[in-house]
Amino acid sequence: MLKDQLCSLSSRVPFFGGRKLTRKTEQLPLCRTQNMATGTAQDAHDTDATTTGWIPVVQLSSLQVTPADHDLASVVVSALQTSGFLVVSSPCLGQLDEVLNVAQQLLTTTNPDEQRRLGIRSHPADPKLDMMLEASELQPGNQQTRLPTDAFDVLSRYSELLGSVLDRLLRLLAVGLSKPEGHFAERHGTRSGSLRLLRYPPVAKTVGNRCKAHSDYGSLTLLLTDSVAGLEVYDDRHCCWRSVPHVPGSLVVNAGSMLSVWTGGVVKATRHRVAGPASTGPWYVGNASKDGAEQTAKLHQDQRQGQDQGQD
């Protein structure tokens, strides 16, 4: 049975939210991909972890102020300057699997009347489904929710958690840029964000991008994904695409155009996409450069042909 691709939840914050913590970072090799048609894992290339640690994992021990804030702030700034992406891992995030399970249950509803009631939308050119929830809809105690009670409770807690993580990151960013701690956080309105549930069902091998290359328009996007690959970031230094690593129990964070404007271009609103089976490269291979783009693309073409032969 084919596996769903990238069932995810993203919280997009169009306006400019605080707390503090301790720091540990590690670099993940971006050398693990998955077959876009089947969702099965495979080794992509012999890449060096020291050269592919482009998206750092930031380990937060709490969501409170700590003396290590300046060290952590420098890591956040560096990540958002270099790739525009980082991964947040913390015991404070709790059991995120239940959030993905709720999203899966909602987005696999097949009753048309129930889909309309929930506001589930389909895409005209792709079987992907999505559902948009404003943060104000998820406020605890809301009696007008369209969600089943259990789903509302889970997503309401998740929305509160994202608000705390967002506030924390914005304050760290301000500290790292030598600005007052509340410089960015205070520009956010209360519950000004939105929560989007997304599901990408399996498609034929001839399908290209499931979501075209784009940059986000807001300040920060916090994304919770499952283990199926697809999300890719464009590396403009090497002129190629890189897979975003999946770290269980973590959130992917990327900067949007508004935050880039507010920082005078210091923070990057990086182009990214959700790739499909027939998406074109080039992709990152070792120290790939613009001159090596053709060779990189050929490597992936040969790899795909080998996969096809092995599945016939």
List the helices and strands and how they pair.
Layout: E1 5-12, E2 24-27, E3 32-34, E4 41-43, H1 49-52, E5 56-59, H2 69-82, E6 85-89, H3 97-107, H4 112-118, E7 121-123, E8 126-134, H5 149-176, E9 194-200, E10 211-214, E11 220-224, E12 231-235, E13 240-243, E14 250-255, H6 257-262, E15 272-274, H7 293-311
Helix pairs in contact: 2-5, 3-5
Please state the average pLDDT score. Answer: 76
The computed structural class is alpha+beta
Q: How many strands, what sense, and barrel or not for the largest sheet?
A: 9 strands, mixed
**Main sheet strand line-up:** 2-5-6-14-11-1-9-8-7
Give Rg in angstroms: 19 Å
Number of strands: 15
Strand content: 15-25%
Fraction of helical residues: 25-40%
Distance between the termini: 16 Å
Low-confidence stretches: 1-7, 13-52, 288-300, 306-312
**Order of SSEs, N→C?**
EEEEHEHEHHEEHEEEEEEHEH
Helix count equals: 7
What overall geometry do the principal axes of the alpha carbons give?
A: globular
Task: Fill in the keyword field for this structure.
single chain; 312 residues; alpha+beta; nine-stranded mixed β-sheet; 7 helices; 29% helix
Summarize the structure.
The protein is α+β, with helices and mostly antiparallel strands.
Protein architecture, described:
Helix content is 29%, strand content 23%. It is built from 7 helices and 15 strands. The strands form 3 sheets. Strands 2-5-6-14-11-1-9-8-7 form a 9-stranded mixed sheet. Residues 1-7, 13-52, 288-300 and 306-312 have low confidence and may be disordered.
